[in-house]
Specification:
By secondary structure, this protein is an alpha+beta fold. The chain has helices spanning about 15-25, 60, 75-85, 95-105, 145-160, 170-175, 185-195, 220-225, and strands at about 5, 30, 35-40, 45, 70, 110-115, 120-130, 130-140, 165, 180, 205. An eight-stranded mixed sheet has the order 10-4-9-8-7-6-5-11, sandwiched between helices. It has a three-stranded antiparallel sheet with strand order 1-3-2. The longest helix has 15 residues, at about 145-160.
Length: about 230
């Protein structure tokens, strides 16, 4: 098992077209910290199965008391800035510029979490067909990023997306059901899910509904087709 990492390249070579092409091939860009960028394709790859998502113990009980509201695509740039606001970040100006271009083209989306009119958390990523590539999330108030992820999964399940890519599995995401799969298996999932026609809701507030009990078939359908399960 080994990650595929390209040679570093200057930021002017990063465009919305090159990013979408890279996603289709299983790669994504990251800043190197020296003003240059690289393409990455991890092996194993982290995904969050949409029909295997679960909330950490106790979170469902406290959710109604948190007082958050959720929206999509109302504060994309602010969400990217929130994700980059940390001591070490791979989201450099070139990354922010290109994802703003993808947002303008309706290929990138954000989920925002609000409290008292203030943006307190959120996430952003890229949509291709029935795949959502989660890029980053942030939280300024406890539990806000969990609410953003819950909202995202609800949106993807309702629209019958086939794959939620999270790049690498962290301890935090593992609590929600994230798993690692080998690159060849991931690429099979990617090809199948990109063939779907799935869309994000229009910009505005969204209701944070309970996740449906039935699965979307994202894993079941692929097992029936002979694709190895994660």
């Amino acid at each position: 098992m080994s990650d595929l990492v390209s040679q570093s390249f200057p930021p002017e070579r990063l465009t919305a077209v090159s990013v979408l092409r890279a996603y289709r091939d299983g790669f994504f860009p990251m800043g190197c910290g020296d003003g240059r960028l690289r393409w990455f394709s991890p092996d194993p790859r982290g995904i969050l199965p949409l029909d295997g998502f679960h909330l950490p113990h106790g979170f469902r009980r406290v959710l109604p008391r948190l007082g958050f509201t959720v929206s999509v695509d109302l504060a994309f740039s602010e969400v990217v800035l929130g994700c980059a606001d940390r001591p070490e970040t791979w989201i450099d100006p070139a990354i922010a510029r290109v994802y703003a271009d993808l947002f303008a083209a309706r290929s990138a989306h954000s989920v925002e979490v609000w409290q008292g009119g203030n943006l307190v958390g959120g996430l952003y990523g890229v949509r291709l067909g029935g795949v959502f590539f989660g890029e980053s999330m942030f939280s300024r108030v406890r539990e806000a990023s969990k609410v953003a992820l819950l909202a995202l999964v609800g949106i993807l399940r309702a629209a019958r997306f086939g794959l939620l890519d999270i790049q690498w599995v962290t301890d935090h995401l593992e609590n929600f059901g994230a798993v690692e799969i080998r690159r060849p298996v991931y690429l099979n999932y990617l090809r199948e899910a990109m063939g779907r026609q799935c869309f994000f809701p229009p910009p505005g507030k969204v209701r944070l509904a309970e996740l449906p009990r039935q699965g979307t078939g994202t894993v079941t359908e692929q097992r029936a087709a002979g694709v190895p399960s994660p």
